[in-house]
Structures
1.
Amino acid sequence: MSVYLSKPAVICALASDAEQLWQKVTHPSQDALKEVRTPSGNTLYAARVDSSNFSHSSARIDMHISRMQSASLLQIEKEIEEAKQIFGADRVAVCVGSCDNASECSVSAWKTYLSTGAFPNNYTLEMQSADYVASLVAEQFELKGPALAFSTACSSSACALIKASQLIRSGLCDAVVAGGVDIASDTTLSGFGSLDALAQKKTNPFSKNREGITLGDASVFFVLSNKPLLQSLPVVLSGYGESADAFHMTSPDPSGLGAESAMKKALEHAHLNASDISYINLHGTGTVFNDAMEAKAVERIFGSNSVACSSTKSLTGHTLGAAAALEAAVCYETLVHNRNAKEAVFPAQVWDKEYDSTLPQLALVDSEHLQKTNKRVRHVMSNSFAFGGSNASLIFSLEESV
């Protein structure tokens, strides 16, 4: 059974819709990464979305993350309503990945409590629950199928997309609104800062000078369905693979075996060979450990310098629970825009172009190395390798070649 994807709904610091996202990742700059001051007084970079761009949410829980989520979902409102009309609201599920769990509200509420002895009137514990990101989608569109939330750090929305596909393939539902939403809140910045995982300058994936992550905001959603919706292009989630490092609470297994396993499983699930993949959207966080292990894993499967790849986190920031969905949108646009192209163009990254010579060589796409090819682009991969070793790889394909 094929699982089709609608066009993506996209809001992030780099772009306000999917078409703009494509233009930005093929004409790369790091303008979306702005200086911010952390609660501890340090200055670093983050790719935050201006909250003044959104009206107050009609949801029960009104805050920056829910406003951004609601605004992005309006981009695919027609597709959601079409799925309800075709399949019935009880056959449409929700799967959402997120990590922040409304810390923006909980921190503010506790500050008020400590100074006044009482929480704000509009504050409820539900704001801190992991499931609110899914329940708000179900409520916004009156969807009656299962509503599931996933919080596996950086692979959260990859897990959401995988579960959405499994729900459809199993026959438990016919369509799923799936994706991810997350923000670079002060709590998140403080947490990553305590791990010395944040870059003081803008993130610099796979460089010998890389020093860490730049965080960002994003909300990205699709409608997945067992048949294409009326205005959909033939893009399918053709394969996926998951694995666990079982190695460390935060650091990846330096061997890259967990990442390698996820990619191999995705290829097997899609019934593809490594040579069928035209482009890989790398996890590429810009940390010393992630980039090293990912380069090893990619080289073992695809060979050295053999497949076009890039880390678009250098443009969008690392949007945590939303990252996999955002990079799925990049992959979707890569397939759509290269569908009838005589010369394919791939998403690029921004970095200092000083490759770490201790790593296996990757064919990184950047402003000087656009990796254009006359080969037809029919299959692309996206990697998400999370804290705690929760690994996921997704393969997206044009159905005519599946």
Note: The longest strand covers residues 235-244.
2.
Amino acid sequence: MTTYSTVQGDTWDGIAFKVYGDENLMTLLLNANPAQAETVIFGGGVALVVPDKPEETADDLPPWRRED
């Protein structure tokens, strides 16, 4: 786990894209930072916990990305 310091104007999906490369993983950030769950647009300097990105398994991948 690491931390991320917000920049004025950051949003959950934007932060998820910056740290994971996938805005759909913003729920990981929300679950790890319940005290900030009501925040929509961040001010600068808020420290957020960033959990490790989960490993993708073959079951998580669409059929065309699976190795047979």
Note: Helices lie at 12-20, 26-32.
